[in-house]
Specification:
heterodimer; A: four-stranded antiparallel β-sheet; 50% strand; B: mainly beta; four-stranded antiparallel β-sheet
């Protein structure tokens, strides 16, 4: 089974900062990686699919890259509404799996 | 616009079976382009995929839960369901249902990601 490891587990940043979150798969998953944003008490929201495709309605300051085993989510200029927890998820094959999450906190 | 809604008891006793239903509205569960999934999130913790089902009834489950999980689909009601047996306090969580596309032989249906989610339902395991 594929294990997903995110780093860091938390990051403190200021509005306007560039933030990068990393996700590593325990084996190659091609480009089949998704990123989600979850705010406290809310439903997870799909941001990025197929490693780098922006879901409709998601601001362009979010971007994703990578293939194989190493992936990144970048927020180019952090906005107040971006403080949340972010999860990666592999969709290459069953069983599906999420990473442990990265909490983006206000510095 | 497709919507998902979870329903079921909010309190389940230890050793009993948790049963939840997800009702699909604004679209058909018998679409050949998607799988339907259950995901849970214990308090203060991350997301865990429980399992997925195709309209044909084909299912996949998390190996860590496989022996206790049953997922089924009822196309006549446009619903799919989750049963988790022998629950303990560790099964207390918010349970979500969601839709996910898939890829087959190089062709992808949908986004191959969980693009539509239900609002979630809290299930507490306690006597």
């Amino acid at each position: 089974d594929i294990q997903m490891t995110q780093s860091p587990s938390s990051v403190s940043a200021s509005v306007g900062d560039r933030v990068t979150i990393t996700c590593r798969a325990s084996q190659a998953i091609s480009r089949w990686l998704a990123w989600y944003q979850q705010k406290p008490g809310k439903v997870p929201k799909l941001l990025i699919f197929a490693a780098s495709s922006l879901q409709s309605g998601v601001p362009s300051r979010f971007s994703g890259s990578g293939s194989g085993t190493d992936f990144t989510l970048t927020i180019s200029s952090l906005q107040p509404e971006d403080f949340a927890t972010y999860y990666c998820q592999q969709a290459n094959n069953f069983p599906l799996a999420f990473g442990g999450g990265t909490k983006v906190e206000i510095k | 616009q497709l919507q998902l809604q979870e329903s079921g008891p909010g309190l389940v006793k230890p050793s009993e079976t948790l049963s939840l239903t997800c009702t699909v509205s604004g679209g058909s569960i018998s679409s050949s382009s998607y799988y339907w999934a259950w995901i849970r999130q214990p308090p203060g913790k991350g997301l865990e995929w429980i399992g997925s089902i195709y309209y044909s009834g084909s299912t996949y489950s998390n190996p860590s839960l496989e022996r206790r999980v049953t997922i089924s689909v009822d196309m006549s009601k446009n619903q799919f369901s989750l049963k988790l047996s022998s629950v303990t306090a560790a099964d207390t969580a918010v349970f979500y249902c969601a839709r996910i596309g898939y890829c087959d032989n190089g062709y992808c249906y949908g986004t191959n990601a969980f693009d539509i989610w239900g609002q979630g339902t809290v299930v507490t395991v306690s006597s």
